[in-house]
């Protein structure tokens, strides 16, 4: 990957850190916050609750009617009564199904709207986060939050909310009816509850931790794959296939291990429930039989209890089954909220300065900046570029050239000192306002999926077709565009594969031409481009630079020579400054540098 001035992430920090350790948040605050999202759809939720209440009541009514059928009609051989009761039972179950259908239908609506909002919020928020946030995280991990984590939340909302509500209602209803029918048998049925509670607690505390672990390893693996895929040519170039396979295996194995234990523990839950269910059934049958012998309860009541005990453990069973999704969703929600809680680029006040008729004078006053605290990248840098000047930044890799540009565009803000545009401190100019007056032509021209025309128009969205073509013409891009199969309508895929690096640059220049900014930021290509295209680029750049203040990271002697001012950077400090001639006369660092560049210049 070639370097560009605006680097989204610093390679070292990306490897060193996989984001901050997930804050161990409480379950309750996370649930509360999720509930806050749901509360925005009160109407639909009310309907869902209504249907859940109805279905729980009807679900309890069914077994009760069966018990009555046994005691009142089967025992007394009352055929007519039995038929009537069976019809009533059928009606109850039809309504029961209808309420189940409706509660699901409305709940899906609630869930989809909720996660739609969360996705929007998260995506918007991501765009407002400072670049330093992205420096510390793998892109794959972030992508997984926007898609996987939110999808988890969605599937959980779809099923779990209803399950929880209906479980609570069914449990309360069942206990009430059971107490009414036989307090003694109720006590026997409830015996199983402490066992359930202890068993569940033991398993779920482990499962929660294990699921979080699994989710973390999955994020890491995703990030690793994304990085490996996007840097595959580098891997091949340096024959690092084996090394990367080893590193992959290591992460893959960790995920396998975490997945194994998480699934094993959660798999125990339904089995345990089943066993307890059977024990409960045996207890009811035994105790109920005894009570019936002494005439304390009827056979119908035993049947109702046996059925209710199933109803009784089923909600808990359901909850347990839900636990897989519930846990990973809560873990996911915590990670989503983590991002939402990360501070945005500090909010800009509406009253902030607007720039009119920008002339493009740029001034750095004692600017210092560190990406990581305590390790200053830029130290007390001061310079002035008068309107229309061309300033070339020259210096070895890592000397801070790109950082100066990052600061000028306010991708980062200086720790001390001030940057002024037209004598106005950029700290008080909204970022978008500031960037409106800047054009970027970077080494790695960014092109998105869309037509050539759309890509150029990105510079100024309201430009007419004629203006787009005029810009392409002055950027020397028109002739190559016309040779493409669909001309300006040619679709670019995958960041413009299919056109050459040089042609991409020409498009970037056309885009900047169209935007017509007062300040131009250039990062000259270091890679060699064929001589003809190179000539086109040089010519297009010269006409682009006319009348604009240009800050250029320059690598070619020809370009550097033309600069009104050359700033030689070394370890974040300006060590020499002046024009080519004065610096050559000085016989300092620049003179040596220029000499090394000379053969390159001669080649061109
Ligand atoms: P140049 O453009 O002259 O090659 P840079 O401005 O890119 O230099 O880098 C200056 C220093 O800052 C280097 O040591 C580089 O490793 C470091 N650096 C650059 N970007 C980041 C970042 N996003 N996070 C941390 N350190 C960075």
From TrEMBL:
Coiled coil: none annotated. Residues 46-328 form the ABC transmembrane type-1 domain. Residues 362-596 form the ABC transporter domain. Pfam families: ABC_membrane, ABC_tran. Keywords: ATP-binding, Membrane, Nucleotide-binding, Transmembrane, Transmembrane helix. It is found in: Cell membrane. InterPro entries: AAA+_ATPase (IPR003593), ABC1_TM_dom (IPR011527), ABC1_TM_sf (IPR036640), ABC_transporter-like_ATP-bd (IPR003439), ABC_transporter-like_CS (IPR017871), P-loop_NTPase (IPR027417), Type_1_exporter (IPR039421). The keyword ATP-binding applies. One of its GO terms (molecular function) is ATP binding. It is a multi-pass membrane protein. Signal peptide: none annotated. PROSITE patterns: ABC_TM1F, ABC_TRANSPORTER_1, ABC_TRANSPORTER_2. The chain crosses the membrane at residues 43-62, 82-102, 161-181, 187-204, 281-306. The keyword Disulfide bond does not apply. This is Lipid A export ATP-binding/permease protein MsbA. It comes from Bacillus badius.
């Amino acid at each position: 990957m070639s370097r560009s001035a605006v680097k989204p992430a610093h390679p070292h920090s990306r490897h060193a850190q996989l984001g901050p350790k997930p804050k161990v948040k409480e379950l309750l605050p996370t649930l509360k916050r999720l509930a806050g999202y749901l509360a925005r759809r009160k109407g639909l939720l009310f309907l869902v609750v209504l249907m859940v209440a109805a279905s729980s009541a009807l679900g309890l009514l069914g077994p009760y009617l069966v018990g009555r059928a046994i005691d009142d009609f089967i025992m007394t051989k009352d055929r007519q009564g039995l038929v009537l009761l069976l019809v009533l039972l059928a009606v109850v179950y039809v309504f029961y199904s209808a309420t189940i259908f409706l509660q699901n239908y409305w709940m899906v609506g609630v869930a989809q709207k909720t996660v739609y909002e969360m996705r929007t919020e998260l995506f918007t928020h991501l765009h407002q986060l400072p670049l330093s946030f992205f420096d510390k995280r793998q892109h794959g991990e972030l992508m997984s939050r926007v898609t996987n984590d939110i999808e988890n939340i969605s599937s959980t909302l779809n099923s779990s909310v209803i399950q929880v509500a209906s479980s609570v209602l069914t449990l309360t209803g069942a206990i009430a009816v059971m107490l009414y029918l036989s307090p003694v048998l109720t006590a026997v049925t409830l015996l199983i509850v402490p066992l359930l509670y202890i068993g569940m607690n033991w398993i779920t505390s482990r499962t929660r931790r294990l699921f979080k672990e699994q989710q973390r390893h999955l994020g890491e693996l995703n990030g690793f794959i994304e990085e490996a895929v996007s840097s595959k040519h580098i891997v091949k170039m340096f024959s690092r296939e084996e090394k990367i396979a080893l590193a992959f295996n290591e992460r893959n194995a960790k995920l396998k291990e975490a997945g194994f234990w998480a699934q094993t523990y959660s798999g125990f839950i339904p089995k345990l429930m089943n066993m307890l269910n059977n024990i409960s059934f045996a207890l009811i049958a035994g105790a109920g039989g005894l009570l019936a012998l002494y005439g304390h309860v009827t056979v119908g009541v035993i049947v109702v209890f046996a059925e209710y005990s199933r109803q009784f453990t089923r909600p808990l069973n359901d909850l347990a089954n839900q636990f897989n999704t519930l846990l990973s969703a809560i873990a996911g929600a915590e990670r989503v909220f983590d991002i939402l809680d990360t501070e945005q680029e500090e909010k800009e006040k509406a009253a902030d300065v607007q720039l009119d008729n920008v002339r493009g004078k740029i001034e750095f006053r004692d600017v210092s900046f560190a990406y990581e605290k305590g390790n200053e990248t830029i130290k007390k840098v001061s310079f002035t570029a008068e309107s229309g000047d061309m300033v070339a930044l020259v210096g070895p890799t890592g000397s801070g050239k790109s950082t100066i540009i990052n600061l000028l565009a306010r991708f980062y803000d200086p720790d001390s000192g001030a940057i002024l545009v037209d004598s106005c401190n950029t700290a008080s100019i909204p970022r978008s306002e500031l960037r409106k007056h800047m054009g970027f032509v970077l080494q790695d021209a960014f092109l998105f999926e869309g037509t050539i025309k759309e890509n150029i128009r990105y510079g100024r969205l309201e430009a007419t077709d004629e203006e787009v073509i005029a810009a392409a013409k002055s950027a020397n891009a028109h002739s190559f565009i016309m040779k493409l199969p669909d001309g300006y309508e040619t679709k670019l895929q995958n960041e413009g594969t299919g056109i050459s690096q040089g042609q991409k640059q020409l498009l970037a220049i056309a885009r900047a031409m169209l935007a017509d900014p007062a300040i131009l930021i250039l990062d000259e290509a270091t890679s060699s481009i064929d001589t003809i295209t190179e000539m086109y680029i040089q010519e297009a750049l010269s006409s682009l630079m006319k009348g604009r203040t240009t800050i250029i990271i320059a690598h070619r002697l020809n370009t550097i020579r033309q600069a009104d001012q050359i700033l030689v950077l070394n370890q974040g400090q300006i060590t020499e400054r002046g024009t080519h001639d004065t610096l050559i006369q000085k016989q300092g660092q620049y003179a040596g540098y220029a000499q090394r560049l000379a053969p390159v210049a001669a080649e061109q």
